Amino acid sequence: MHVISLIAPPATLDPALVASLQSAWGAVGDAVWLSPDEAAEFPVAVPPGNLGRVRADLAGMRVDVNCLPAGDRRKSLLIADMDSTMIGQECIDELADVAGVGARGAEITARAMNGELDFEAALLERVGLLKGLPVSVIDEVIETRITLAPGGEVLVATMKAAGAVTALVSGGFTQFTGRIGNRLGFDRTRANTLIEENGILTGDVARPILGGDAKVAALREFSPDTSQAIAVGDGANDLGMIGLAGIGVALHAKPMVAAAAPVRIDHGTLEALLFLQGYSRDEFARV
Predict the structure, then answer these.
(1) Residue range 88-140, pLDDT digits in tens
(2) Which of 8, 20, 228, 273 is the most buried (most CB within 10 A)?
(3) Tens digits of residue pLDDT in 23-75
(4) Separation CA 183–CA 179 (nearest Å)
(5) Can you name the residues that pair with 251 across neighbouring β-strands?
(6) Among 286, 285, 261, 287, CA closest to 64
(7) Domain-by-domain residue ranges, the chain?
(8) Could you say which of 64, 81, 93, 238 is catalytic?
(9) Could you tell me which CATH number the domain at 1-71 has?
(10) Which of 64, 83, 93, 238 is catalytic?
């Protein structure tokens, strides 16, 4: 058995659309509304063969449609990327912008996250652009440039209230994940570390470098039964953990990542990860 999940901005999901898809895809049960006119789901015996085409057709309505295995959907581990996932920015790009090399840094980041460049080599090249930058700039960037992605605090708080472990695992930097993870309420954080000397960034990072393989290793460490995890990210270095987790979600992801991920959220917020697990809005934690 599988579940078809439909999620749209509040007050925009048309019940007639849900009923139409129930009929077209041979629903074997009634629709359950997790939030009126926002999120609904219904069971099917087999995954629909035209899911991709329907997803594309519904893009203009900002409806996310996914098909998930029906059983054991509420996960005991949330493992999340940070940059452009739990926050709205790429921290290294913001640092590069302050250093006056923002365009070059952003170009490398975009190509690396789309899988066009080796992650480690791209990271070292971008960090090299930061050589000589005062460490104090990190505080400035966090305080003036970093915004939390919508729904992140609710996602973390709701899963923790249900007994799940939450882990922020980033190819970015501990100087950011420590503070952002604490602000969001994550239980654990893991990232690379920018090397500092006498209050100045050296243009290097500590080894070993945390990339895609390290994210997979963290998932296995935090949840030996990987089927009990929900993973979310947006870049190529997130695909390993997204593919391994029980529910792997590409969130507003780069094209090649969205195409490869088992589940994709193109329009919704991080709250969509709760709907994907079968939580109703009434069960969301208040933050």
Answers:
(1) 999 999 998 988 887 888 888 888 778 888 888 889 999 999 999 999 999 99
(2) 273
(3) 999 999 999 999 999 999 999 999 999 999 999 999 999 999 999 999 999 99
(4) 6
(5) 265
(6) 261
(7) 1-71, 74-287
(8) 81
(9) 3.30.70
(10) 83
